[in-house]
Amino acid sequence: MQTDSNQKIENTIIIGSGPAGLTAAIYTARARLEPLMIEGEEAGGQLMITTEVENYPGFEEGITGPELIAVMRKQAERFGTRYITKNVTKVDFSQQPFKVWVKDTLYLAKSVIISTGASAKLLGLPSEKAFMSRGVSACATCDGAFFKNVEVGVVGGGDTAMEEATFLTRFASKVYLIHRRDSFRASKIMVERVLKNPKIQVLWNTEVIEVLGDTKGMNGVMLKNTEKGETQKMDLQGLFIAIGHKPNTDLFKGILDSDEVGYLKTKPGTTQTKIPGVFASGDVQDSYYRQAITAAGTGCMAAIEAERWLEANH
Ligand code: NDP
Predict the structure, then answer these.
(1) 47 CB contacts (<8 Å, ≥6 apart)?
(2) Among 35, 130, 151, 247, whose Cα sits 20 to 30 Å from the Cα of 111?
(3) What is the CATH number for 88?
């Protein structure tokens, strides 16, 4: 198919390059769809800020997040995936072919797989960024096991914070749950579990105002009492930020349906969005599991669905 301008129309454009997008690329490339991946300027997604990944099947000894992404990327490239290392700035899915812009450059496609992921919300402290993956983490499931027999902190008062604090007691000698208010928004049962756990101590009305450390990594935090304004230093080997996630869906506002937080809605059991030919996979449509392996799984689903949709419609 050609447009008036004779511009090439891609079979499928994949937006985003975490495990969901790269798996979709491997599958669509092996289906000879010659996918074009617009991988973003900070390609690779959340795994790029993860140190050791020990729960991704196939890597007995574990693998670092960036290495895992690099292997997947090469694998997708081997079958013919092409990459553009830029950010998509605008999309128009109102008619075929779909339009995807990178600034002034327009790309056309018969199908689109969205895998732009989600980002963990952070406190926004420069020191938090400096010690990311060197004590500071946004994922207890990923990094918890590296904190055996040491004291760690968890920031947040929602279900994620409760879950992460409880999970971390398997490894850490003590978990301080640091919350800015005097009550949790988390569900009662999860709060009860936390309050009953002798290894967890709640620090109410408390904010982390700085992460402290040296060349070896973080070794403490500066805390501030939100009521009295007093500050206090505390020795901690790890700090888990659990204050929620933000799906990367600004591009699709008003175009695709999303839930109240912004996660894209897909037809249950599929990766289909409300627009035929546009699929969503990975964390951008999953606020619940948020694992590399589940993202990869839905990336595979999106590729198979896109392939079948293209066969039936083009
Ligand atoms: P939430 O938005 O529910 O909670 C975020 C928490 O972080 C709040 O307590 C909030 O404080 C605090 N917070 C936000 N910003 C800051 C900041 N800048 N500094 C300090 N604290 C901050 O996010 P969750 O990730 O916990 O949960 C998201 C959704 O997923 C919820 O619907 C939850 O129920 C669900 N979920 C369910 C689970 C389960 O059922 N097993 C497990 C995990 C999540 P404040 O309260 O003061 O606003």
Answers:
(1) 18, 19, 53, 65, 66, 68, 69, 292
(2) 247
(3) 3.50.50.60
Residue 244 alpha carbon, nearest atom of ligand 1: 25
Ligand 1 centre from 122 Cα, in Å? 12
Residue 142 bears catalytic tag: yes
**What range defines the domain where residue 203 resides?**
122-241
Active site residue 300: no
Looking at the fold, whether 153 and 228 belong to one and the same domain comes out as yes
- Tell me, yes or no, whether 160 and 224 share the same domain: yes
Q: What is the pLDDT of residue 1?
A: 44
The CA 121 to ligand 1 mean position distance, Å, reads: 10
Are residues 86 and 13 part of one domain?
Answer: yes
**Residue to substitute in 160, 246, 261 for testing ligand 1 pocket (most ligand atoms within 8 angstroms of CB):** 160
For the stretch 293-313, pLDDT in tens is: 999 999 999 999 999 999 999
In a shared domain, residues 109 and 145? no
- Whole-model pTM: value is 0.80
Torsion of CA 304, 307, 310, 312, to 10 degrees: -70
Residues 6+ apart with CB under 8 A from 288: none
Residue 3 has pLDDT above 60, yes or no: no
Tokens of 264: 């894209």
95/127 same-domain check: no
- Indicate which residue of 4, 92, 104, 143 is catalytic: 143
- Active-site position among 4, 104, 142, 259: 142
Q: Could you give phi then psi for residue 12, rounded to 5 degrees?
A: -150, 135
Pair 154, 164: CB distance under 8 Å: yes
Q: Does 89 lie in the same domain as 18?
A: yes
Pocket of ligand 1 (CB under 6 A): 123, 155-161, 163, 180-181, 185, 243-244, 287
